[in-house]
């Protein structure tokens, strides 16, 4: 019976030792092995699986250390008694339900739920987006093998005796002091921001920061200004808090500073690379936004999620760097352009606001993973985050240049919003052509593109916009991908 657990080959990137260990644990927890008979000897198991005896010896040693097996002198390895008495994968039996009368109808969740966020308009990416040969998808980053190796080094150091005592304990509402120091000394100065530890909060990504801010600063009736088009999840977060959403116009220089700012309580802006158009907020508008906040008495949330992706010259200093009134709340990400799945971000704001955010975060998540915080602190301290940024800018600049050239050559009828950085381009299709029609026809050719209507706040969103991400697709595939996209547009008369 044991052989049935080894029919599958090890997954790519996993060692034989890990594979054998996992399969034996499965067999033990399933109760598939005779409890009073020894497992095959390490030599016999090695012969059965076609691996070296050293591999099976190490597996048995680890299973013994973890308490799954117990060695018996001259007899071999037996399943530990606790797994004979109770196989963990067999559900506990209970007769509690029999004490009550049968339920007449299913639980009325539609009446009981006070909120249904699943109904929000959201960006939906195909689950199989990796299968597309030409994925012009936004928000996913191709693996940087050198950064991945450096991250593994950082996580190994995190597990050493010097660092482990810091993250093994519950930090309650505190942040890793080493990571806070690295944010203050290495990350913020590149944005022109000077801050103190009581002005910084670590979050589970920048979106977590937006949620906490919305819960503390927004209530029914408060007016929140949002870029239109803008970031969909920010819109949903503020709407869930009861805000009255006010669309604010965006042009080639970012958010338009206009009389529409009057009467607002809060303005949300993405200045480095506006979401979704990727345009950069001009310096004069950054200064004008701060002056408007003072004049009209509103707060500004600056979401600088892609600050490092500027291809021509140094990145612009953050809006918060020009603010001396404490009205600008700076939100950033440490992992969006590194490993989006790690989810680490930060907020820089007045100490009074940070204190309340910390208290609220304690109610929701207590604190982000202390292990990941320390690993990131080591990663930054050893210079790997800066090195990753340099490599990423070089690769993204190549992709951006190749994509812009290919669009100009193959799709001259498509208007592309000029940008100087970011990880996507914003396109307007020829008149009368639907972005969703292009999406479906392009998909048949292995090209994944994202319609832009979801980003609009107004009741009649533009249906001719496409967002083309270039952070995941390989450089050498861009030209052919755009040619196939052009075929899809031509079929529709463009």
Explain the layout of strands and helices:
Elements: H1 16-29, H2 42-49, H3 53-65, E1 69-72, E2 76-79, H4 81-85, H5 109-112, E3 134-135, H6 145-158, H7 164-167, H8 177-187, E4 200-203, H9 205-217, E5 223-228, H10 232-240, E6 244-251, E7 254-255, E8 266-269, H11 283-296, E9 299-304, E10 328-333, E11 345-348, H12 351-364, H13 370-381, H14 384-410, E12 415-416, E13 424-428, H15 435-443, E14 447-448, E15 450-451, E16 465-469, H16 478-491
Parallel strand pairs: 3-14, 5-6, 5-8, 8-9, 9-10
Antiparallel strand pairs: 1-2, 4-11, 6-7, 10-11, 12-13, 13-16, 15-16
Description:
- There is one protein chain.
- By secondary structure, the chain is of the alpha/beta class.
- 37% of the residues lie in helices and 13% in strands.
- It contains 16 helices and 16 strands.
- Strands 4-11-10-9-8-5-6-7 form an eight-stranded mixed beta sheet, sandwiched between helices.
- The longest helix is centred in the last third of the chain and has 27 residues, at 384-410.
- The model has no long low-confidence stretch (mean pLDDT 91).
- Pfam families: Aminotran_1_2, GntR.
- Keywords: Aminotransferase, DNA-binding, Plasmid, Pyridoxal phosphate, Transcription, Transcription regulation, Transferase.
